[in-house]
Each structure stands twice: as structure tokens, then as C-alpha cells.
Design a protein that fits this description.
Elements (H helix, E strand, L loop, with lengths): L1 H12 L3 H6 L19 H7 L1 H4 L2 H21 L16 E3 L4 E3 L6
Antiparallel strand pairs: 1-2
Length: about 110
């Protein structure tokens, strides 16, 4: 329920083509400016645009993976190469005397 409220709030606050057409009643085409296939709504931009899926979604995934990797390493006492999570390049397997952290990554 909270996710739906957030998406509705974002739809209202972001000036998407669909918002302009349906809410503001302008003569704007409601299709996505990038793919020109689907209505440009927040959920389409965040989750489903085929143009963004080629590169941007993978970059977002990799940033989330790096943050999770750093948090996991810090909680388990594993040494990191940098103090900043965004500078980390998560290793496939990280081990210490107490634990092993295994990360999954998109191999292209």
C-alpha cells in the first residue's frame, strides 16, 4: 500500500508526459520520451522502459549491490578497500576467519 502511495505521489510531482496528458489536460503525447512505446509514468521509467533497461537499470543494480556488499562486510568485520561504499568493487567471494561473503553480479 505504501509503495502505491509513493508512486502516485511521484506521478503527481514529476512532470511525466502521462501526467501532463491525463492530469493537466495538455495536448502532450503520453508516450515515453525515450522508447515512444508505453505511457510515460513513474513506474515505467523506474521499472519497465526498454531503453533504460539496456544500461541504466544495470548501473542502478550494481550501485545497490555495492552498498549491500559494504554493509555486509562492515557488519561481519571484513576489511574493505575504501571507506566509501561507492568506491567499492565487490569481489565475487570475500572471506575472513569468521565468515564468507558471496556476491552475485551481472556478468556480461
Amino acid at each position: 500500500m505504501i509503495i502505491i502511495i509513493i508512486i502516485i505521489t511521484q506521478d503527481v510531482s514529476l512532470q511525466t508526459n502521462c501526467h501532463a496528458t491525463e492530469i493537466l489536460q495538455t495536448e502532450t503525447d503520453s508516450k515515453c520520451r525515450l522508447c515512444k512505446q508505453f505511457d510515460e509514468k513513474v513506474e515505467h521509467i523506474i521499472l519497465a522502459c526498454p531503453i533504460l533497461a539496456k544500461e541504466q537499470y544495470i548501473k542502478r543494480h550494481d550501485r545497490v549491490r555495492a552498498k549491500l556488499y559494504c554493509n555486509t562486510c562492515k557488519e561481519t568485520g571484513l576489511q574493505l578497500d575504501s571507506d566509501h561504499w561507492y568506491e567499492q568493487a565487490p569481489k565475487l567471494v570475500e572471506t575472513s576467519h569468521d565468515c564468507k561473503v558471496i556476491t552475485l553480479r551481472n556478468e556480461q
